[in-house]
């Protein structure tokens, strides 16, 4: 005879299995229709939008680029917990348990439909989850009851059949999810795009200190190592043949450009360092690359902006995400561009394919719109972008900063000749000098690496005769305009972090 505990656990498992089938089928349907409408991703994206800024900053600081995986895992865990409860209820009231799963699926459906730009097709994944999840739960509960009746009449009670059915359905769920993910990733693959040479190329790129100072950040960041911080849980699916970039708003004429039309325009190539506003002092969310694109001023000139009263460019990506950029900064002579290439190749999808905005000297949240499809000239009083609505700054120049790459914080080094090294950046200003402080003593001037340009970071190093003991190392940078890196500690919100990085190192 079965015990109540075993029966409860088994029905909880029925709820979990049924929900896994529903989630997996919904993901497959979403992959074939609207990838962002996959219920788990839709709920996760809604959570991102509703999460208070301090919590977002904590997640980036503590979890880094794993924050998206942790969020999705948390959503799945909560859903499966509720599914288990629905399964327990279904033991005695099958219809109520099935309705609970339908309600659970409806939450994902509502989140998908509420996403910017969602159409009727966004309903399909949630409907698939509701129907399949409820249906599988009812079938498992009835199978369990029939198996229990047979077992009660048998001299050798067994529920092997229902357990095997559950295992089989779990395998089906895994297959559906894998198929959906394969379709999503296949659709996200960027076709081979051959970019024309720049009419205004960047100069020869110098050799960096990474060849002589082990542990220092490379002068140019490999594309595969370039940081990615954004709100998207799933990369968009972009059809290059259907994509275009439109400029509208307070302009003389609305204009649109296809990708081929962009590549036919005079292209500029520049080495530029980008920085995320979420980067803490000494943090990793900064990288340097060679960008290829159309000067932003050239594109705006096609629309005619001489008489505009706009003070911002409101950029919109292919899925409705908005980012605002001060118009005066975009047109003040710096190498602002709509980039289509990165480090000699077309943009990877993760970094904005087919086009993104690059404005040296501004944090990404007010400049680096990826997957851009529209630029609207307007005013801050008329329209607010995603981050502006969340009280982030509207004009956020990158703060001068520096970072120690080697030795690593809390490292255990051997006594003798060591090298302290790292990078410093002050985009659109340039680095004049970097200083290092050891154990609170006087600041010492470090040697600088090659100067790629004011919009690019600068490597630096200082030889150090290290003695045994615990030592405290700090660095600070000075810009070419005389600005010294701030010592006052500020968090990233609302306009970027500041302060002096100091690390502890043990020498033995």
TrEMBL record:
Keyword Membrane recorded: yes
Molecular function per GO: heme binding; molybdopterin cofactor binding; sulfite oxidase activity
Organism superkingdom: Bacteria
Family matches, as SUPFAM superfamilies: E set domains, Oxidoreductase molybdopterin-binding domain
Gene Ontology biological process terms from the UniProt entry: sulfur compound metabolic process
Pfam families recorded: Oxidored_molyb
Coiled coil region boundaries: none
Record-linked InterPro entries: Ig_E-set, OxRdtase_Mopterin-bd_dom, OxRdtase_Mopterin-bd_sf
Keyword tags: Membrane, Transmembrane, Transmembrane helix
Transmembrane segments: 12-34, 69-89, 96-114, 120-141, 162-184
Span of domain Oxidoreductase molybdopterin-binding: 235-386
Protein name per the record: Oxidoreductase
């Amino acid at each position: 005879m079965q015990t109540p505990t075993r029966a409860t656990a088994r029905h909880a498992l029925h709820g979990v299995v049924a929900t896994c089938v529903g989630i997996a089928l919904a993901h497959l349907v979403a992959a074939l229709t609207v990838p962002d409408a996959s219920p788990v991703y839709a709920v996760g994206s809604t959570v991102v939008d509703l999460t208070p800024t301090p919590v977002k900053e904590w997640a980036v600081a503590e979890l880094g680029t794993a924050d998206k995986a942790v969020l999705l895992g948390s959503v799945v865990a909560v859903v499966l917990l509720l599914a288990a409860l629905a399964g327990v209820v279904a033991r005695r009231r099958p219809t109520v348990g099935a309705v609970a799963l339908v309600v659970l699926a409806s939450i994902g459906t509502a989140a998908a439909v509420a996403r910017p730009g969602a159409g009727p097709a966004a309903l399909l994944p949630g409907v698939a989850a509701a129907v399949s999840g409820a249906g599988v739960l009812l079938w498992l509960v009835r199978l369990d009851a029939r198996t229990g009746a047979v077992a009660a009449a048998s001299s050798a009670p067994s529920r092997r059949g229902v357990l095997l059915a559950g295992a089989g359905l779990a395998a089906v769920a895994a297959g559906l999810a894998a198929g959906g993910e394969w379709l999503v990733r296949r659709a996200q693959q960027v076709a081979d795009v051959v970019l024309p040479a720049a009419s205004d190329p960047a100069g020869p790129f110098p050799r960096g200190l990474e060849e002589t100072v082990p542990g220092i950040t490379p002068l140019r960041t490999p594309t595969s190592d370039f940081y990615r911080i954004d709100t998207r849980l799933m990369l968009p699916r972009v059809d290059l043949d259907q994509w275009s970039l439109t400029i509208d708003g307070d302009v003389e004429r609305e204009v649109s450009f296809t990708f081929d039309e962009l590549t036919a325009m005079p292209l500029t190539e520049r080495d530029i360092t980008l920085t995320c506003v979420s980067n803490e002092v000494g943090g990793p969310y900064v990288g340097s690359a060679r960008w290829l694109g159309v000067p932003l001023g050239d594109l705006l000139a096609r629309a005619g902006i001489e008489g505009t009263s706009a003070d911002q460019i409101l950029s919109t990506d292919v899925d409705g995400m908005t980012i605002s950029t001060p118009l005066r900064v975009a047109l003040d002579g710096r190498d602002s561009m709509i980039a289509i290439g990165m480090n000699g190749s077309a943009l990877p999808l993760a970094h904005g394919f087919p086009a993104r905005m690059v404005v040296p000297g501004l944090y990404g949240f007010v400049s680096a719109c990826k997957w851009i499809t529209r630029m609207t000239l307007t005013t801050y009083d008329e329209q607010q972008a995603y981050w502006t609505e969340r009280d982030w700054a509207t004009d956020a120049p990158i703060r001068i900063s520096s970072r120690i790459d080697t030795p690593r914080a809390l490292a255990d080094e051997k006594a003798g000749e060591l090298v302290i090294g790292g990078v410093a950046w002050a985009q659109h200003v340039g680095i004049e000098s970097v200083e290092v402080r050891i154990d609170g003593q006087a600041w010492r001037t470090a040697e600088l690496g090659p100067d790629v340009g004011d919009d690019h970071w600068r490597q630096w190093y200082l030889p150090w005769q290290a003695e045994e003991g615990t030592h405290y190392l700090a660095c600070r940078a000075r810009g070419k305009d005389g600005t010294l890196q701030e010592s006052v500690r500020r968090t990233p919100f609302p306009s970027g972090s500041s302060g002096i990085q100091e690390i502890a190192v043990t020498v033995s």
